[in-house]
Amino acid sequence: MRILITNDDGINAPGLEVLTAIATEIAGAAGEVWTVAPAFEQSGVAHCISYTHPMMIAKLGPRRYAAEGSPADCVLAGIYDVFQGGRPDLVLSGVNRGNNAGENVLYSGTVGGAMEAALQGVPAIALSQFMGPATSDLDDPFEAARVHGAGIVRRLLDKGHWDAEDYRIFYNVNFPPVAAAAVRGTRVAAQGYRRDTFFGVEPHISPSGRKFLWITGGPQHEPTAPGTDVAVNLEGYIAVTPMRADLTAHDRLKDLEAALA
Fold first, then answer.
1. Where is the Survival protein SurE-like phosphatase/nucleotidase domain (predicted)?
2. How many other C-beta atoms are found inside a 10 Å radius of the C-beta of residue 160?
């Protein structure tokens, strides 16, 4: 198996080392793991692509590349430049430092990388490690992902639904903010929504008198509805969410058609 890995935390992020270990185990002795990751951190870029300017790509070592672009850019670079139009058998994106559950999914570059792979017709899984008080005291805060990552990827490859629809299924996996031994199992969970948790801005004045704005986030440990991704993570379970890039509100199509007729 030939696996392409990327992330949004950057080529030197510790989570990418965890993902390399996961991918190496999945690929096996006869397989290949290729890395194309952002040269610099790209958190929060979602599914953006560098459509209006070129990006530099540099080979750092055998099967290891850094690109000055987003995770989606890196997937495109991997398929069309590094692989010369060939196809990996699987794209893994992560392991993100922090959860990509609830509304975070919409901003996540980690999810964006997996989404681009799915749009390119390649099976893809995004992986993220929820952080919290229980992980801050660990020698390895990615312990849950490191220990359980290969197992959940293998189960998804063997038993997950992999279709050939125009907007193909891809998977979003979030590991709970606990030690590996405290993981209670796996739950298939819908994307949740943290109420009263929003991004905003905080103004600061520089020494030169100019105003700069920092983006601020809300509390990450507010649970979502029971059974959804953040809620099951906070209960100690690995959350697995099947996703598509289709943003249509299919449940409202008929009502809207009737209303506008």
1. 3-195
2. 17
Single out the residue of 148, 165, 55, 47 nearest to residue 106, CA to CA: 47
Residue located via tokens 């199509």: 253
The answer to the question of whether 246 is labelled as a binding residue is no
H-helix segments, the chain: 14-27, 71-77, 109-119, 133-136, 143-159, 229-234, 253-260
Residue 251 φ/ψ, nearest 5 degrees:
-70, -10
251 is in an annotated binding site: no
Instruction: Name 150's Cβ contacts closer than 8 Å, sequence gap at least 6.
Output: 21, 22, 25, 26
The verdict on pTM exceeding 0.85 is yes
Q: Which of 154, 102, 97 is nearest to 125 (CA)?
A: 154
Dist CA 145 CA 173 (whole Å): 10
pLDDT of residue 86: 84
Q: Is 43 annotated as a binding residue?
A: yes
Kindly report the CATH class assigned to 2-192+223-247. alpha beta
Q: Do 191 and 102 meet the contact criterion of CB atoms below 8 Å apart?
A: yes
66 beta partners? 37, 58
pLDDT per position as a tens digit, 79-100: 999 998 889 999 999 999 999 9
Task: Check the annotation: does 81 bind a ligand.
Answer: no
CA-based nearest residue to 93, from 35, 150, 142: 35
In sequence order, what are the residues at sequence separation of 6 or more whose Cβ sits closer than 8 angstroms to the Cβ of residue 7?
Answer: 13, 15, 16, 19, 37, 38, 71, 93, 94, 95, 96, 109, 110, 113
CA gap 189, 224 in Å, rounded: 11
The first and second tokens of residue 193, run together, are 């929504």
